[in-house]
């Protein structure tokens, strides 16, 4: 069941909290093709010594029958994830520990558990934070542990773009391209309409343009911070949205342990902060 949009009642809270403990297990053949496509998208060489941190996001993504899709083309809430009554869904944060790099061509299994559901009050209104605990094993060995935070919130006031589509991009900043968004959605099997459907963005969710994927930016930042050392831990937190017309610059930080990096918008706002720690 999906709760009525915007209605946060005691019954809705109870229904959402009842999702805690749900599990789902997916097995992936770990074929090399998704990694090869992701490498092209990122402008990187194909990995030879196992997948770098965050590249596993291109795997374990099963298809969703049309009858099970929500209005945003994610799986309808209430089937596995809690039936949060808010329309906007975002990948807000993640904490990935790579114990052993995943090897291509060797089947792996991911077990996802709904670990926590919490309601908080923000500037735009009530929000629902869902924590998902991931465990990925390969050959009977625990390879990756991950805590993913998904946030649901109401539409709120429309977001303003930082520049028009024909305005110059400030020196030192860059734009993400529409082709990046399309092909990242394809390689991760992500149908979320905020990344490809402008009418949906503007009319349904109040965004000024297509939204750049948080995990795409997190992976790009991680690759600028990662020095090839594993085991390691990579965590990021999304702090402000980035749209197709938003100029950003990637600041991977100086080599250190831990290493601190961030993505900055042209208005000086930090869009994402990240930490990489060699263990």
Q: Can you offer a commentary on this structure?
A:
The chain is of the alpha+beta class. It has a single domain, classed as Roll (Thiol Ester Dehydrase, Chain A). Helix content is 17%, strand content 31%. It is built from 5 helices and 9 strands, in the order αβαββββαααββββ. Strands 1-3-4-5-2-6-9-8-7 form a 9-stranded antiparallel β-sheet. A hairpin with a 2-residue loop joins strand 3 and strand 4. The radius of gyration is 19 Å and the shape is globular.
Which helices and strands occur, and which strands form pairs?
Layout: H1 10-17, E1 23-28, H2 32-42, E2 88-98, E3 108-122, E4 125-138, E5 141-153, H3 178-187, H4 198-204, H5 214-225, E6 232-238, E7 248-251, E8 259-265, E9 270-278
Antiparallel strand pairs: 1-3, 2-5, 2-6, 3-4, 4-5, 6-9, 7-8, 8-9
Helix pairs in contact: 2-3
């Amino acid at each position: 069941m999906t709760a009525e949009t915007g209605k946060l009642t005691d019954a809705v809270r109870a229904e959402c909290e009842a999702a805690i403990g749900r599990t789902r297990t997916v097995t992936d053949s770990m074929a090399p093709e998704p990694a090869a496509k992701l490498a092209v998208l990122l402008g990187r060489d194909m990995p030879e010594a196992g997948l770098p941190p965050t590249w596993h996001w291109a795997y374990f993504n099963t298809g969703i029958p049309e009858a099970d899709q929500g209005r945003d083309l994610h799986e309808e809430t209430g089937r596995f994830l809690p039936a949060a009554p808010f329309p906007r869904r975002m990948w807000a944060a993640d904490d990935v520990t790579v114990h052993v790099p995943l090897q291509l061509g060797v089947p792996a299994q991911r077990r996802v558990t709904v670990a926590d559901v919490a309601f908080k009050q923000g500037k735009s209104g009530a929000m629902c934070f869902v924590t998902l605990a991931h465990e990925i094993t390969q050959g009977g060995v625990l390879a990756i542990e991950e805590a993913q935070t998904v946030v649901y919130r109401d539409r709120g006031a429309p977001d303003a773009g930082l520049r028009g589509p024909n305005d110059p991009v400030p020196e030192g900043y860059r734009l993400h391209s529409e082709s990046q968004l399309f092909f990242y959605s394809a390689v991760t099997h992500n149908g979320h309409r905020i990344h490809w459907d402008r009418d949906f963005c503007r009319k349904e969710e109040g965004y000024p343009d297509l939204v750049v994927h948080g995990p795409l930016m997190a992976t790009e930042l991680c690759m600028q911070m990662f020095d090839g050392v594993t085991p390691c831990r990579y965590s990021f937190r999304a702090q402000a949205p980035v749209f197709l017309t938003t100029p950003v610059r990637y600041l991977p930080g100086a080599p250190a342990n831990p290493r601190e990096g961030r993505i900055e918008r042209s208005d000086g706002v930090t869009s994402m902060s990240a930490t990489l720690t060699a263990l």
